[in-house]
Every structure is written in structure tokens, then in C-alpha cells.
Amino acid sequence: MYLDILTPESRIYSGDVNLVSLPGSKGSFEILENHAPLISTLEAGKIKVIDSTGQVLFFPIKRGVVECLDNRVNLLVTTE
Fold first, then answer.
1. Which CATH number belongs to the domain containing residue 57 in this structure?
2. What's the total number of domains in the chain?
3. Contact (Cβ atoms closer than 8 angstroms) between residue 39 and residue 67
4. Can you give the pLDDT at residue 57?
5. Which distant-in-sequence residues (6+ apart) come within 8 Å of 31 by Cβ?
6. d(CA 55, CA 79)
7. What's the CA gap between 6 and 66, in Å, rounded?
8. Taking CA atoms, which of 14, 16, 47, 76 is between 20 and 30 Å from 8?
9. Of 65, 70, 55, 45, nearest to 5 (Cα)?
10. Count of other CB atoms within 10 angstroms of residue 55
11. Residue 11 exposure: Cα atoms within 13 Å on the Cβ side
């Protein structure tokens, strides 16, 4: 699946991933390939990404919104 992480200032990540773990407003959750369509708000925490090579990446955020549709995950977040 394809992931874009955007802030108001820039794109901080873009690429193919195997897993995205997110700090949701109602608790943390993960998105894998072929996930059902989803829109959710995010709270302060860390986004965990496992990219297509197996590398684990972390991105700290203050808040945001996630949209998942057709194996494309879009994150709009603030980091400050």
C-alpha cells in the first residue's frame, strides 16, 4: 500500500509500506494492505511505519487526520 505523510509545511514521507500504526483519538490502531475504507482523527504520539524493505520508522506528531482508501493511506498531521 502507498503512504503519504503531510504537514502544513512539507511532505515528510511518501512510499510503499507494509504497516502503519497510528495514535487514534479512541486508541491506537494499525492499517495493513487491503484495509477497509477509514477516516479518523489522531492524537499526540508516534506514527510507526514498516516500509516495503522491512525498515521501521517513527514520526512524532501532535495531532492529525488519516484517510485510508484503495490501499492508499493519507496522513495530514502537525508536528509542532
1. 2.60.15.10
2. 1
3. yes
4. 98
5. 1, 19, 20, 21, 22, 38, 66, 68, 73
6. 22
7. 10
8. 16
9. 65
10. 9
11. 6
For cell 477509514, the residue is 38
Cα–Cα distance, 21 to 28 (Å, whole number): 7
C-alpha cell at 65: 487526520
Convert the pLDDT of each residue in 14-62 to its tens digit. Answer: 999 999 999 999 999 999 999 999 999 999 999 999 999 999 999 999 9
Residues 23, 44: contact at Cβ < 8 Å?
yes
Per the structure, the complete domain to which residue 21 belongs is given by: 2-78
- Which amino acid type is present at position 18? N
